[in-house]
Amino acid sequence: MLSNSILQINELTKTYGSRESIKIAVDNVSLHVKRGCFFGLLGPNGAGKSTIINSIAGITQPTSGQILVDGIDVVKDYKLARTKVGLSPQEFNVDIFSTPEQLMDYMAGYYGVKSETRKEMVNSLIGRFDLEAHRKIKFQKLSGGLKRRAMLGRALVHTPDLLILDEPTAGVDVEQRHDLWAYLKELNEGGKTIILTSHYLEEIEHLCTDIAVINHGRIVAEGTKEEFMKNGKSIEERYLEITREDNSSKK
Predict the structure, then answer these.
(1) Does the structure show a pLDDT above 60 at 2?
(2) CA–CA separation, 155 vs 230, rounded Å?
């Protein structure tokens, strides 16, 4: 039987530095993300969001704790767990001289997608993200919005069960942002579990069903969007209340 949680984070801690100068990036975080939900992970810069994302994706090694993706331990069975995750990072960590077509094809090959299926998938994503006219243009020459679309296509090309989007619409104009929103909603309604981090809180409000707020490396609030928005408050209003209260408690 499938677990109701696609992602289980149990007492995750990540520290950097030596004993004399330890920096705690993530402090004993536990978090479960339900299969099929659209999950918003919010927090100020430096709160620990990227460390959590990188730990899920196997880019960062946890200091302690456990992360399971679809029941698979990301440390003990890294290769299999990684096939379950698609990551579109905030930074453009790509070969800037490659084209969108090449970026997607290479990533599909990396995950062992067979050549015929790979070609079909790349063509489908090129079409879906309106990249046909740009498929053979070097990444460095693309606009910010086109780069974001190419990154999203690269994250989806191996059909992961869990899609993680770190600021996916940064630098994207309003019209393109709404086009991406529509596609992401379509993906989620089709059963894809999505974790989204964004400083555009109206984006979180528009897309997400469940939300957690991290501050100073700890989860300080968690619940459904409806719970966050009770008493007529917007996500932005509630987020500011939560982070201000938490910051005040640490003074």
Answers:
(1) no
(2) 34
User: In this structure, which amino acid lies at residue 108?
Assistant: A
How many H-runs (helices) and E-runs (strands) does the chain carry? 9, 10
Cα gap 108→101, rounded to integer Å: 11
Closest by Cα among 140, 145, 166 to 88 = 166
Query: Tell me, what's the pLDDT at 174?
Result: 87
Distance (Å) of CA 125 to CA 119, 153, 214: 10, 6, 33
In angstroms, how far is CA 102 from the centroid of its own chain? 22
Measured between alpha carbons, how far apart are the two ends of the chain, in Å?
A: 47
For CA atoms 214, 49, 148, 187, the dihedral sign is: negative
Q: How far apart are CA 192 and CA 186, in angstroms?
A: 9
Q: Are 139 and 96 in contact (CB under 8 A)?
A: yes
Burial of 181 (0-12, 13-18, 19+ CB in 10 A): middle
Give the pTM.
0.92
Please give the average per-residue pLDDT across 198-207, as a whole number: 94
* Element at 73 (helix H, strand E): strand 72-73
Q: What percentage of the chain exceeds 90 in pLDDT?
A: 80
